[in-house]
Write a structure and sequence with these properties.
187 residues; alpha+beta; Homing Intron 3 (I-Ppo) Encoded Endonuclease, Chain A; four-stranded antiparallel sheet; three-stranded antiparallel sheet
Amino acid sequence: MKVKDLRNETWSKIKLPSAHKSKVYWVSNKARIKSVDKNTKGEYLLKMKPDHHGHLRATIRLANGKNYGMWVHKHVAASFVKKPSRKHSLIIHKNYKRDDNKLSNLKWVTESDHRSYITERLRAQGHVFHSKGGSSKLKANQVATIKKHLASGKKTKTALANKYGVSLTQLKRIERGENWAHIKPAK
């Protein structure tokens, strides 16, 4: 069986860290990976699954018995995207979507460019930067509502913590004025 090529699809052989017993692996410019059996020449498309960061990968077992994760974006970029220089050692997704591995979406960058990219990606995803680092789970209007409920005593702290996804400690700090002291209770 042979894998049917997509329109204008080309393939490049993947260099593995160690040999595979019976298969050779190929990556395409359309972000697909296939295995080719060394004996039968049968071809099989590998299934991609997202890792915990959202990058698509396929896992195979090498001849030495170790698993090897083939991240699609890395193999596509290594085979089909021109590296401007040796300093360009990291790959980014221009549209911030880690499962979009089209050639036009991948780019080699330097370490300093990558740090800027991470900041831009976080901003694009709505991350709010704070002077102490991290981000707040609560918005100012939510804190005002929490202060109103704490003052009235109609809702328990446990109910409020569950509703807003914060700890009881956080609610006690809001109540004592340690956190969010500048926010007034809602009317």
